[in-house]
From TrEMBL:
Record NCBIfam families: PRK00283.1 (NF001399), recomb_XerD (TIGR02225)
Keyword entries, A-Z: Cell cycle, Cell division, Chromosome partition, Cytoplasm, DNA integration, DNA recombination, DNA-binding
Protein name according to UniProt: Tyrosine recombinase XerD
Main subcellular location: cytoplasm
InterPro entries in alphabetical order: CB, DNA_brk_join_enz, Integrase-like_cat_sf, Integrase_catalytic, Integrase_recombinase_N, Integrase_SAM-like_N, Recomb_XerD, Tyrosine_recombinase_XerC/XerD
SUPFAM superfamilies: DNA breaking-rejoining enzymes
Amino acid sequence: MARRAAPRGWSPAVETFLEMMAAERGAARNTLDAYGRDLTHVEAWLAGRNGSLETAGTDDLRGYLAAAAAEGVAPRTAARRLSALRQFYRFLYAEGRRGDDPTAVLDAPRRGRPLPKILSEAEVDALLDTARDRDGPEGLRLVCLLEVLYATGLRVSELVGLPFAAVARDPRVLIVRGKGGKERMVPLTEAAMAALSAYKAVRGVFLAAGETSPHLFPSRSQEGHLTRRRFAQLLDETAALAGIDPAKVSPHVLRHAFATHLLDHGADLRSVQQMLGHADISTTQIYTHVLAERLRALVETHHPLAGN
């Protein structure tokens, strides 16, 4: 088998390391390029401080990671660069070119949890208004889906798979079977109850003659009910007609909007947790970070001293 050459143009130390990765570990060209770029970036930073990649100590590398964080380098990128450094120094140690590994006691940067995408209340209203413009049973079903989702924050699988029995008892609440088979009761808004009532009057249109279905949203799909994919398609179409970028909208984004808007209007975190069906309240707390980020952006944009 022909030896896979390492990329050229790196410093001698980096090039030797990349040649080892290519020859002994069969690293792909893209992998070698990525390692080379990351190591060269660190090398340049160290050189600007009269240091070198081969002789750098733990404090030097810790300083690099701190500087990267201060410059706004994404934690994922910083973690990738640290991974490249670990590989590099292990290679130097194994080759006897260093007697220690300066990355051994370095912690990987915390990646953090990305904040969920959300829609403004005006955008949700625009989606609902656009859905109401759709005629016939398809339109009534779409309005019902959106009103129920925004009123309850259901997971999309819970929404499309709702049994008809979930709304046959008390019209003011939904009985939802979520993850792990756990049941929870979620209250419905007046708008959601009205949309459900209007949809149930035409639900039979989605059934073949003489057919019955245990599902609230029956269809001829293999599952027997409206699929997640079809609902996502309907949502994309509605967003486009409403003048909202479809890439910004999904069933899960509406679940996020439900939670964020509730908290924005004073709901307590524990109640939102129960309605969302989160087993751990720490999962729900992500929405408090969304609100904090929105407040920060509001202050930075509108505070009279923000431009100073």
